[in-house]
Amino acid sequence: MDRDVVDEKLEIWARELPLLDLPTEGLVERIQKLARHLNRSLDETAASFGLTLTDWRLLGSLRGAGPDYRLPAGVIAEQLSLSPGAITQRLDGLEQAGYLRRIPDPDDRRVLQIELTPEGRTRWEEAVGVQAAKEQLIADALDEREKAALNDLLRKLMLSFAASGGKAERRGQREQVG
């Protein structure tokens, strides 16, 4: 089997840190490297459509809301982990571009609903098409059986992390501090 840059790093770790769990380190390092590559690709795609990654995610949240393509501003802020000031700035820019509009909530005048416009929907879907083609190039390294197996394994890791409530992450932080 071909070797990658992580294999080279694992050789060094085996020599320098013999007690390290190398299969785990290899898994984590590869996931991190792939995530960086995918995020860079997504940043480039978003930018080529005049969007930031946050804009992309915001429009995607609205598109994912289903027909009417509306969400309260507070829900979007929560989904994207943005402060009220940051969400307002994002909404201003996307509204100026014609990708969304603010409409009063008919049930609560204190709440603004954010609605994806047809222009915003088209722009986001075009960008998604470009990004999906880039991601397909990566996924083409696997056959359908391998994709299914990898998805199953990654799902298992995600569910384990979710079930732990992020305990492993917090435990690691305490060990660094302590």
A few lines on this structure:
This protein is mainly α and 178 residues long. The protein has two domains: 1-48; 51-141, Arc Repressor Mutant, subunit A. It is 70% helix and 10% strand.
Write the layout of secondary structure elements.
Elements: H1 5-16, H2 22-48, H3 53-64, E1 70-72, H4 73-80, H5 84-96, E2 100-105, E3 108-116, H6 118-139, H7 144-163, H8 167-177
Helix pairs in contact: 1-2, 2-6, 4-5
What this model shows, in words?
By secondary structure, the chain is mainly alpha-helical. It contains eight helices and three strands, in the order H-H-H-E-H-H-E-E-H-H-H. The model has no long low-confidence stretch (mean pLDDT 91). It has two domains: 1-48; 51-141, Winged helix-like DNA-binding domain superfamily/Winged helix DNA-binding domain (Arc Repressor Mutant, subunit A), CATH 1.10.10.10. Helices cover 70% and strands 10% of the residues. A hairpin with a 2-residue loop joins strand 2 (100-105) and strand 3 (108-116). The protein has a three-stranded antiparallel sheet with strand order 1-3-2. The radius of gyration is 21 Å and the shape is elongated. It starts with a helix and ends with a helix. The protein has helices spanning 5-16, 22-48, 53-64, 73-80, 84-96, 118-139, 144-163, 167-177; strands spanning 70-72, 100-105, 108-116.
